[in-house]
Predict the 3D structure of the following.
Amino acid sequence: MERTDRDEVFVEYTKSICPVCKVVLDAQVNLRGGKVYLRRRCPDHGEIEALVYGDAQAYMGSARFNKPGTVPLAFQTEVSGGCPLDCGLCPEHKQHACLAIIEVNTGCNLDCPICFAASGHQADGYAITMGQCELMLDAYVKAEGEPEVVMFSGGEPTIHPKILDFIDAARARPIGNIVLNTNGIRIASDRDFVKALKDRGVTLYFQFDGFDEATHLAIRGKDLRERKRRALDACAEAGVPVLLVAAIERGVNEHEAGPIVQYGIAHPAVRGVVFQPVTHAGRHTEFDPLTRLTNSDVIALLCEQLPDWFGPGDFFPVPCCFPSCRSICYAITDGTGVVPVPRLLNMEDYLDYVANRVLPDPQVKQALEKLWSASAVPGSAASEASLECAACGTGLPETLAGLAGKAFMIVMQDFQDAYTLNVRQLMKCCVEQVTPDGRIIPFCAYNTVGYREQVRAQMSGVDVPPDVPNATPLQPLLTAGPYGSKIAGNGNGACAGAPRTATSTGKRLP
Amino acid sequence: MTAQAPETGQAKACCAAAYDSDLVALVLGDAYHPGGAVLTRRLAGHLSLAPSARVLDVASGPGSTALLLAREHGVAVDGVDLGEKNLARARAAAETAGLAGRVLFHPGDAERLPFPDAVFDAVVCECAFCTFPGKEAAAAEFARVLRPGGRLGITDVTLIPGRLDERLAGLAGWVACLADARPLEEYERLLAGAGLRVSRTERHDGALAGMIGQIDARLRALLLARRAAPSPGALAALDQIDVGAILEMTALAREAVSAGTLGYALLVAGKPGAGRG
């Protein structure tokens, strides 16, 4: 008998979940055809595989940018069921929170076809009270001491009647920066509100997916182009710094990555762009898990579209989280010319935590760690100081430091969904959701394992069936859920959880 | 600067002068040679450096290689360079690093090294051999100052003759590296001709491409800074040169690297004789 070789390189043994019944499963990561795949088998729902990184070499190379985590000052739970069922944070979590998200409501003034939170005009959602907001902020402060960033999100947080009070409550605590997530609709029409945000030093995390009408209709269900333009101009006028946040989906707006960056660099209000391959949680269009977009794919798209400005080597993995989760580039620019900061420094000399080297300059290292972090807020005083320090590390004259301080940030962030969830990454997640009862749950656990549904049910008093990703291979198992996302039909999700087997823990959230 | 390759004899002085200038220091930053500290560490790894070893760094520039070897391998290093400013800069860096007792910098010519025979356990020469007009003489000097069993480590620019774009002649006049660089095989022959045994050669063309990219980025950054600054200040030197022309050359140089015409290589050779103690 002739023996054959496998068509893949086995590189990790880890845990994941079944995207249908959410039971915790052993999983493996394999390299195949230059790409990285996560695979597991559910006793009830069969083999599940997803593309998790489009460039195997970059994935393996990113391992050296893995920084030792910092222990939070307080944990909220104990270890009992094992990751990801003990959130959180449990004492086994490897990293503190660089950024915490407080979702103030489930209601939204849009009903986008793509929304990981499945928000919209819904009668049975919830909105948090001032007391709950204070409890959430206090839990964050207790865990972090002096937290770096809090982000208010939703739903659409700008329609919560108490949003400015919540921001003031955050400002009254030792929290470095306040970021407000928004679709921009209120920003476009309410100048007093924009001024109130300016007065409170708020940075906007501004949903912005492209310029084509078709993009707007596919992702937002409405042509919002004129309102986006008016909102950004209002921010420029008032001096509110903005990060454009683009959800990128295969076959929808891949061609808009370059134009979004060009537009952002030329716009006086915009300090950076965050690209997020669409997280297949909540509502989204049908997708193929084996050809979905990953960070390296979006980097490649951007570099193809702006070859004179960026190359793949300009994007460096972020060391605070798991390095394959997020990559960042800063670019020094005067609105016309662009120079990526990583070309001016030998980044590996500072951010390689595996090769044990003599430090070139601890101050520059610290500045780069702050910049290549989930807590970096471009336009903030801390970020500008770090950029100026990094510019010093290049040995270029001081005149450059001022310009460097205003460097433009580009982020690639692939949030995990129930199809791509790798517990290895989750255990070091540094972007956390604070729940109204004061737990701190990794964002990618909150969206995948069932925590979001639990919290919504507790807060609204209405049962919420668990979301299932709208993946092509799962179509026969899916049916429409109450908020437009897919749920398991035919009792598939309601199965009592898969039995415990050699590769399944048999456990899921109660 | 002329558009022709500098005459033999001028090249060395021209190169040393170019490396000595503030503008070049600004554009090159700490990366005086392709591959930076990572490649220097790799080279050092092939030299079997014991902490008691005495090492010579030929064309030591601002002292980065000499200081790295002293810091990470505990060796004593002598650096020689033709440029006075570089020597002063290197001495100051040694002082700052607290290594002034173990790392000394001397004025000196690679073709007439100011040291007796057979005193060094290792000789290194990074990104400089290509600029020496008398390569046979320099190779013979390396061999002479090495003790039997000692090792030579070189990293350098390689060039396939006759294939370089004419317009790069301007760049050749600027940094001189390109003017008299040779193919890797010829460096091997030169070292063998001096009685050294080449034990290892490695291509590191990516290191050169990376450095060209870095020069290009630093120049662009300086241009942005110059445009933003109300008065030229430290960037006055930028107004005296044709940055656009240099950027055109960095683009050509990058193309030459990807075509295999220009490259960077690492060579290790040994001086035959007694084994190491």
Observations:
- The two ends of chain A are 49 Å apart (CA to CA).
- Chain A touches chain B through 24 residues (CB under 8 Å).
